[in-house]
Amino acid sequence: MIRIRLLLVAASLLTVACAPTPLVRLAGDPPQAEPLTQPYKDLHPAADGVRRFVRACETGQWEMAWDGLSKQTRLALSVRARPAGARGIDLLRPLPADADPGLRQLHVGDALQRFALPGAKEFNVPEEVWPVEQRYDGRRLEAAVAVKDAAGASRQVVVAFEDAGWRIHNPKLEGPGAGDAP
């Protein structure tokens, strides 16, 4: 009898202790951290990869945005930047007014415009990428994420699963303003 009571007490304590904790911003958080601490429920991980890239670009966190690109996309940017003696990540960042003309010619323009959609608010994956009952078998997983902004403009963004996360996959650097790509 005592065992049953102990089990019931332990189960009730575990239930209370394992309740989800609410997401609370810290008192010293800067205002630009607010979009990064908003809860996103029922967002597919592929769509979340695009959302993280968009938020990183909007807040000027270029290393985080660089990490949100696939390896092939990063390689394409690095190869494109090499003639100007720059790094691939330098092509994502906004150019300063006194930038080298060679770098200015190779720059991809607005990173959000090229790889996602400026001011994106909605991120959806129209179809399931991989059946839940199947295990990942080593093939490259890609998905199309529908991105829509507040004005209603939309775009499809291709993401690839690599390094345990979904990253924007655009190795040809295609997108608005891509006519100048070498």
Jot down its keywords.
32% helix; four-stranded antiparallel beta sheet; alpha+beta
Written description of the protein model:
- By secondary structure, this protein is an alpha+beta fold.
- It has a domain at 43-128 and 138-174.
- It has 6 helices and 4 strands, in the order ααααααββββ.
- It has helices at 2-17, 45-58, 62-67, 71-81, 101-106, 111-115, and strands at 120-124, 141-149, 154-162, 165-168.
- The protein has a 4-stranded antiparallel beta sheet, with helices on one face.
- A hairpin with a 2-residue loop joins strand 3 (154-162) and strand 4.
- It is elongated, with a radius of gyration of 21 Å.
Indicate the structural class: alpha+beta
Q: What is the total tally of β strands? A: 4
Mean pLDDT, to the nearest integer, reads 81
Taking pLDDT < 50 over at least 5 consecutive residues as the criterion, the unreliable ranges are 178-182
Element-level helix/strand string: HHHHHHEEEE
Helix content: 25-40%
Number of helices, counting only DSSP H or I runs of 4 residues or more: 6
The N- and C-terminal alpha carbons lie at a distance of: 78 Å
Reading side by side through the largest sheet, how are the strands ordered?
1-2-3-4
What is the beta-strand fraction? 5-15%
Largest sheet entry = 4 strands, antiparallel
Counting copies of identical and different chains, the oligomeric state is: single chain
Radius of gyration: 21 Å
Shape: elongated
